[in-house]
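Worked problem 6 (solution included).
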Amino acid sequence: MKSYTIRRPFLIPLGILLLQTLLLFAIVIAQGQPKSKAIILGILFVPVAGLFVESFFRRIVVAADAVISYRPFRQKRLAYDEITAVDTIQVKKRVFMTVSTEEHFVIISNAYADFPALVRELLEKVPPATISEDTAKMAEDPPLKSSDIYSCWFGVALLAIIMILQFVK
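Solution. The predicted structure is:
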């Protein structure tokens, strides 16, 4: 049984971005700046915090008899013998692999660490007849995506500049 989590190189800048948002919120309040700035930062904080929590606790377990998806406050378990389809949608370097049964499905993206190993291990265990042609083709050379990591680091740099500008007036 192997567990796969969201890539740490994505979670690290996302966590820093979350802390920076809180710090900038505290700076705006401490300096007595307009409430509109605090409101904007509060609005920014909610989705960043939600994305961080969801990403931090999300994992996929490829067990001997089932694939299990863990998310905050919920989990899905799909037994291999109940799987009816494994399909893939690929947009540039972004991959979404759907594992379905008659009643449930799990979507696995290439945001997971060691995605090629995850795909290999999963496809070895599901019934071969359920694997689509697109999925088999993608599994030969699963794409790795890093633009989300760069975007997070860009956000970190941008908030760092904004924080510096709060003290340079």
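Discussion: Helices lie at 8-30, 35-57, 115-125, 133-140, 147-167.
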